[in-house]
Hints:
By secondary structure, this protein is mostly helical. Helices cover about 80% and strands about 0% of the residues.
Amino acid sequence: MPRPIPTAPLARAVLLAVLCGAAFLEGMDVAMFNVALPSIRADLGLTTAEVQWIVSGYVVSYGALMLVGGRVADAYGHRRVFLVGLAAFIGFSLVGGLAGDAWLVIAMRVLTGACAAFLMPAGLAILNTTYPAGHVRDRAVLIYAGIGAAGFSVGLVAGGVLSLLGWRWVFLFPAGVGLLLFAGASALIPRDDVRPRASRVDYPGAVLIAAAVAFAMLGIESLAHHAGPFPPVAWTVAAVAAFLLFIARLRRAPEPLLSLAVLSQSSAAPAVIGAASLAAGFAGFQLVFVIYLQESLGWSALHSALAMLVVAMDAVLAPLVTPLLVRRFGVWPVATAGLGFALLAYTLFLPLDGTDHYLDFLPGLVAVGLAFTLAYGPLTIAATERAPREDQGVVSAVLYTCFQFGAALGIAGASALHSSATETIGDGLTALKIALIAPIAAAALGFASAVVTTIRRRSRPRPAASVPATSPTERSA
Length: 477
């Protein structure tokens, strides 16, 4: 039986706020450093390649350890791993904010990314195993996803403001917020009702999948930033080799790190495709849009971040509107509509001509906000709702890993198209429009996949009356 949630309305609200706060903090933390990099570079005297590792190191360790973090949470207890991950996140952020050497700053970002890899899947697993299946859980997941997605947009502005006070505040502010969240989490998250089982973690498999994901992320980073000790093809070959060894390990391990059957039963496969496309489209679009604002229109970094703030409308709309739509239409029709808005949004930016005003951008930015409002939460539900309780952590990790991969691929694709078009054509505006092909293609792939999934699920026969669906979400699926 699922562990009960606190019965007092205030305690229930605070518990959800703590979990949402952790997701919001992680998204905001990533975005703030994107804005603060110039200040860090100037103060520490870093090269472009060195300063990029403040972001890339976080992303690589986060992506590489996500599946391991999810399985460790399942094996040792979601609450335990959440609290340990959050405490370590706070500690490494404090050290990074006080560090005087560049290598220590970069090392703290790598370790902070590793902490997030354990923290995030544990948090989503706590939510899914604490709240009862049905409308209560669906609404909680939608609120969690909406606020978590808004963290990145808010972080862009927060990073600009904190950078004015000094780049160290970009480390110290998340540590302070994390301390408040840790106090709330310690008091409100129900204790784990499972005994730690180290045998559930296949450590050889963990090493192989961590290596595969790390090599793949390094290859994407090398392609996106056109720098690194090895070419992208070398990283790709290493990633494929490690992944094939991981697949072979899955067949031999007594308790494999990841069961493909679990993914199939949980309906996660189409959901993670949609999640990856949503992240890829937005990441690629953001790169193109920010370049356009700053290089073509001459906007500052802070003004560019404020322009993107409207995308965070999902923090308000997702908790209020999306649950009603999911109850009325089901998870996949709502997610499909969201992915359709993403495709519409990026297409609306094709007529850019270098003389635009903010009101010209507003319809497209609103469409991006609606895309996340309607797609992010329902895709999270679809990926995790049917996973067994003992596998919630690893299935949540698969979802977050696909978000990371999608975002990295979206940036790499848009960057590669932009660089190639700039070299061959020379017209900066035309090159940006060509780069928009990457987010449009990603959104089109996600939308097409969601349409097919929706049609297939509608065509399936209804379940027998003796085995009723337990929630509106399951009935739609």
